[in-house]
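Before anything else, study the sequence and fold tokens given here and see whether the fold suits the sequence. Record follows:
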Amino acid sequence: MAYRLNDASSPLNDLIKKSQMLHPGPPVRYCLYTTRSDLEKDGKIRKWTFGQKYANMKNKTILMVGETGTGKTTLINTMVNYFLGVNFEDKVWFEITEEEKRAQTESQTSEVTVYEINSEEKRSSLTIIDTPGYGDTRGIDKDTEIARNLHELFLHGTGVKDLDAVCLVLKASQNRISGIQRYIFESVLSLFGKDIEDIIVLFITHSDGGPPTNVLQAIKTEKVPCCHDDENEPVHFLFNNRQSEERTKRYEYVYKSSWEMAAGSIGEFFEFLKSRQRKSLNMTVSVLNERTQLEACVESLKKSIKFREAKQKELTEVQDLLKLNKEMIEKDEKFTFTVKIAYKEKINIIGASWQSKKVTSCKECEENCHEYGCWLATNAKKCEVMEDNYCTVCMCHYSTHVREGRKYVERWREERVTFAQLKKKYGNTDEEKASYDKSALKHVETGHRQSLKMREQMTKLENSLKNLLDKNEVERKSLVKDTYVAIVKLSETALKPDSAFTIQYLDFLIPRVEEAGSADWLQKLKNMQREAKASTKSAVGYLSRMNKGPQKAADKASTNSAAELTSSRNEGTQTAAAEEATSYEVGHVRRMRHFFTEFFQNI
């Protein structure tokens, strides 16, 4: 038999009329009727609105962040009941969230949901942003998707433009920050600028009302950024999470105590918000845009450095082959030997995650300007790496770019070549044409003179190779410098620069900076690495377990696909990709140096 309210107030009866009963209780559980809309066509960002919205309504907007199982859903509904004026004695409970039945191994939901609750009586509204799905068994792809959905929410015309609080949800029973939680906090906090720190608070669930000593100590140990009170304690609020449970007379006092603790904490929380200045997300959006561009630049620079190192290996091997076959070449200019050539090829993307199925690449530079996570834009012009119609990675106009399911990859191939072909590829062909007249030498040169001429040409080619190697190394060091500047800029803009993803860049860069011999740079990067790994040790562990390598999988699939595609190529196509190293990289580093000089002028 349904539990009925005989003395319900008019506002309470109005709420009941605008909801559907889920359970007879007590308390009687209702689901509020909401107007639902998708802010993104695939339904990854959704907005549920309850109540009539009026002009000039006062609003509070909060972002909820926490691991699945911390009681975030109950906490959201608790805030809704408090905001709507529901009391323990009313013996009702309203829910705005909706449980979705999924496998136990999955998070309950994967979409970013904005709950907007409007109170006509208070002439105010409450907006709660829920970010579920972090740290679930579906891995890094899903977590990255949520971060990008938040980005979209902040950019959307009817999305969220300001925040009053970021609430990190933890259980009172834990005495350490788990790898998953550390990763969650790193992922979300890395989205924000430094100005957001003084509105980050802790919501501690499943509490008995006592001091949450263990949790607070864990927060201090892990150096999780958050607001602190006058006693230098992290600002926190306690919740029991029993408000919606079916009540029995024997434990009536327990449920009442739980309700009163929650109501008191939320009241204190709203009082706290009065002392804080609402934060505009303009800086956050700027951080997100800048971070996307910088990460694309760093990824491109990494590929350029690796390709430059491959060309270095190619040139060194050619030098060794010349020395090894010197006598044979002097005797016979047509003597052939095998060289390995590094080149770039554009192939179909196979096996990539949905976020990385399309790439923005430059046809002129043969550069993947935005390779991973390039899903937001409908065309190259709208890609996140474009700014004022120019690419922030290669500095070319957007019209030279395409966005498609193909990308450039580094390849190696073996070629049978003669000395004459090596001269054409690596030597100064103009000088050779001016100093070497085949028709004249045919009649007058003796075998001895031909041998001397060949030695002279080999010496010229060896010098040319040495110059190319020196030039190549200078350009590689310039690329290392550009990468260093980009990572430093990342560390200076984001609230959490020491994310697990940034560590990956540091691990790549440090050995190359050490080789370049820049002591100051090396020390700065090592300090960043040490601090980052100390604060993200558990997150890195989680990342290594969960990350099945969407990039590696995509590259592996692409490599397999490319092997099938490279069965035959004409000589012009073969040499074009390799010759690109002597022209493309020179222009690339020049453009990148100009870009970073302008973009990071304050560094």
